[in-house]
Queue: 3 jobs
Job 1
Amino acid sequence: MRPSVPPPSAGALDATAVGLLVLLCALWGVAQVAVKAGNAGIAPVLHCALRSLGAAALVLLWCRLRGIRLGMRDGSLAPGLLAGLLFAGEFLLIFAGMDRTTAARGVVFVYFAPFVVALGAHRFTPGDRLTGAKLAGLAAAFLGLALAFADSLRLPSARELEGDLMCLAAAVLWGATTVVIKASRLARVPAAKTLLYQLGVSAAVLPPASLLLGESWTIRWEPPVVAALAYQVLIVASASYVAWFWLIARYPASRLAAFTFLTPVFGVAAGALLLGEPVTPALAAAVALIGFGIWLVNRPEPARPPAD
């Protein structure tokens, strides 16, 4: 039997949640640039494995310093292992998929995840129902994302199609991970412990996966590669993910997921600032459409008339 989870608030996110979400999306947008830089010197799945290993060590140290109990008597082991496997599969598919398709195409498919979250939350999380306004908002934000990368959405080659399908599968696993956390005892344990399950499982699973895929374990320890890996370990896969899982435990998952459409927009901005990549005029319209979609998902729901 699934443990009961207190229904989340049906209202809009408060200022703390919104501010933290925008910051996280900005950090994750820069991470897209870091992944590109790191992949220049480390094979993709090995790169992801090193990120998980380094972040797991940091989060474990944090738990020890903060006195966070890591015992299994709280009933979190089974959902924690499941979330860890989903997390590992998600990033294996993202890193491998991005190696086969373009970054712009991959981003569009990965950000199908909010739809998975909304459907899963509707089914498994009390109080987080999928309304017409939420669905319209998610669709608007997704269309804005597609508009931002429209120039890259041509007919794919066979290899690109393979990468696209990997990124779409990663989106399903990402959404499923969020729903598992929200609808299980993981919603009641410290966010650092929830993250440690995922980093620990992925750190164990991804190195063998890298070997099975025939990746080279030769690493070019050049300054940009080291900086990119350090950013992902210190900022993305540890601090930012702890904050994200803290948010998941306290706010409606579907409302949180809508904000993640901002991440690739920040990624485009980071690419322009750090790599000199061009920004197309369509980006402004895309940002407006994404913002409108987020507003639709998060606007207060009208009060229902009392039953007779």
Job 2
Amino acid sequence: MSDMKPLDGKVMLVTGAGGGIGRAIAMEAARAGASVVVNDIGASLDGQRESSAAAQEAVAEIEKLGGKAVANGDDVSDPDGAKAMVKQATDAFGRLDAVVNNAGILRDQFFHKMTFENFDAVVKVHLYGTFNVSRAAADVMREQGSGSLIHMTSTSGLVGNLAQANYSAAKLGVAALSKSLALDLQRWNIRSNCIAPFAWSRMTSSIKVDSPEQEERVNRMKEMKPEKIAPLALHLASDAGADTTGQIFAVRNNEIFLMSQPRPTRSVHRGEGWDVESVASHAIPALKASYVPLDVSADVFCWDPV
């Protein structure tokens, strides 16, 4: 039995898998023995539909390696599209063991310039997309009595970044949604986890380069290959990952991080209760030492990836 692969017999749906991280996970999943539904609507970075060739090309490459895959061109932001891709998985392969919610778009703007349309579009794909696909998959997984939901979050949401209110809100929403799924679905052995990936992809290629420091940072990011994200995603999809749920990980080149989740860090108590003056003179001075600084992701992950 030594030639057993970690995902033998598993069926995985990967959204936004025509390129970048999604494609890398789909390819590696197929190599690890999974049958893969490769979803991609062939959209430009900001979400305009272009062509469905990317998903077809990924499927052709998987088949060339001797793997099994089908292409899907449905839109994650449409609940019926999500149902259709899950149905395609069960029609083609008979079951659905893992979902990687990876599809995403970017429409970066500073908040004072952000339009409703650009906020709405990004939240629809990332947050609603994650809900739609997970919701459709949950029905199949409940019936099976098992499943793994893997969602892409971002340090833009977990820590913060400039000019990404839409993306940050959606990605922190995904982390909270994942925790709720882990709680609500545990009785059916369905687990839910997040990965915040650092990798050079179409999404990060839109980072504005307006200084030598920024250029250097982007060049470092180019070294971070999307394939580096795949091993953790495959582990979470496999039986070996069965006891991991409700967690948030980050992957940066050869580093894997477990991210913290909000918990109280400090408290103050006053027997007689608070008024506006005592909040100013007592509560805030006592709590101030533990304030979270106004930092961005690059301030927290400030050392070079190894």
Job 3
Amino acid sequence: MPTTLASIHRFPLKSARGEELDRAVVEPWGLAGDRRWMLVDPEGSALTARELHALLLLEPDLTATGLRVRAPGRPPLEVATPDPAQQVPVRLWHSELTAAAAGRGSDDWFSDVLGRPVRLVHLDDPTRRPTSPDFGESDDRVSLADGYPLLVATEASLAALNDVVLERSQGAHAPLPMTRFRPNVVVSGTEPWVEDDWRRVRIGDAVFRAVKGCARCVITTLDPDTATGGKEPIASLARIRRWDGATWFGVNLVPDLLGGEPVTIRAGDEVEVLEQVPAGGGPIRPVR
């Protein structure tokens, strides 16, 4: 079975629902349009589904002029891409940068939907945010993803995890969908967990560095259709994928684009591992 790109996923608004694409443009900081919008609290700190589970129920779409967002039982919100001159300070994990404020109308809509004061911001210039120097290069950049431009997962690893979930529950727990893990690219035609060993991989015409495994958080325990919580997949990952006090699923990628020029990838593209390390070490924690 050939190794191919099974699906592509973009998340226009951080922590909200994603969309599956037939093709996507890879930019130095991630997929075009991926996680360029974000909600922050009144002090400018990022808000995610970790603390606001209802974010998972919001359905964002990019439009020609900005962003459209749907919420259960609400009329949709249309937001124009804000003026880049209207910058406000924001904080996302260890990153402190600025983003463009979307304005009072969108802030009020989101605050009403989520039941607390929030502001909507747009990252007009992703070159403002470097990746962690512990795992990336000095000129690596990322949009508003947690840490790195893209996340890859494999269908085989999800199937192996679901075998453990079903065994633990004695068949009572439904198989977990890939949407629990919010990857940008999903690869088919591999053995389970081989992505741990990747260091450079080509997807279509785009080449990526695999820089760090992805330690999983409480968001994966939330049903993406209802935002209700449970114990899986963390409980099963803790049995088979626990290292350094964390549980791991998926690998973070950084594009290595020739001259920084964007490249289009398409579902069905060939995936080729260009460099890997011997198997058995677990996920990348760091690579150097």
